[in-house]
């Protein structure tokens, strides 16, 4: 089976390991939430001025309330329940939650995501009946054709 993650930071595009990843979103004056993103969490002691987040001191400061939590809370079955819960109670945009569920819970999806458009254009896979929703067979075909490496395995091999 293809791996879940690692994930790509929605700000800098860099790879995020589970322990460094956070999820955040904004809530407007009408209590509707949007802007669901995965980002590198700024560790205490990192230089100010660099922060992959909406947070104050970050590069994308905005004046709206932010909710954020470690990615680890959104993985596993309970994590899926948590995502659906915040969608309901924080009125989070359904399309954004749908994409986040695919990114966090569909094996191989996140690492294949940058290749989907090209793969359809090059005829490697058929266009999905609903844009953005790919079956495991198509995701596997994208991995094989573009020789996507399992970054999780690489990280394990490189650790001492
Ligand atoms: Zn980042």
**Helix-residue proportion:** 25-40%
Please give the count of helices. Answer: 6
Roughly how many Å is the radius of gyration?
17 Å
Bound molecules: zinc ion
**Physical arrangement of strands within the biggest beta sheet:** 4-3-5
Write the layout of secondary structure elements.
Blueprint (H helix, E strand, L loop, with lengths): L6 E2 L6 E2 L4 E7 L5 E8 L25 E5 L5 H14 L4 H12 L3 H4 L3 H6 L14 H10 L5 H8 L2
Antiparallel strand pairs: 1-2, 3-4, 3-5
Please, could you describe this protein's structure?
- With 160 residues, the protein is α+β, with helices and mostly antiparallel strands.
- The protein is built from 6 helices and 5 strands.
- It has helices at 76-89, 94-105, 109-112, 116-121, 136-145, 151-158; strands at residues 7-8, 15-16, 21-27, 33-40, 66-70.
- The strands form 2 sheets. The protein has a 3-stranded antiparallel sheet with strand order 4-3-5, covered by helices on one side.
- Residues 9, 11-12, 14, 39-40, 52 line the site of zinc ion.
- Zinc ion (ZN) binds at residues 9, 11-12, 14, 39-40, 52.
């Amino acid at each position: 089976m293809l791996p879940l993650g690692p994930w790509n930071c929605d700000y800098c595009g860099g790879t995020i390991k589970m322990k460094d990843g956070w999820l955040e979103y904004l809530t407007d004056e009408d209590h509707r939430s949007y802007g669901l993103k995965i980002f590198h969490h700024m560790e205490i002691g990192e230089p100010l001025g660099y922060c992959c987040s909406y947070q104050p001191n970050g590069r994308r400061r905005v004046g709206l309330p932010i909710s954020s939590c470690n990615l680890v809370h959104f993985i596993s079955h309970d994590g899926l329940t948590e995502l659906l819960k915040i969608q309901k109670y924080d009125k989070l945009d359904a399309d954004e939650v749908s994409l986040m569920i695919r990114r966090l819970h569909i094996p191989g999806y996140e690492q294949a995501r940058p290749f989907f458009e090209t793969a359809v254009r090059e005829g490697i896979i058929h266009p999905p009946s609903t844009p953005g929703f790919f079956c495991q067979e198509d995701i596997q075909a994208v991995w094989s054709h573009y020789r996507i490496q399992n970054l999780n395995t690489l990280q394990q091999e490189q650790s001492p």
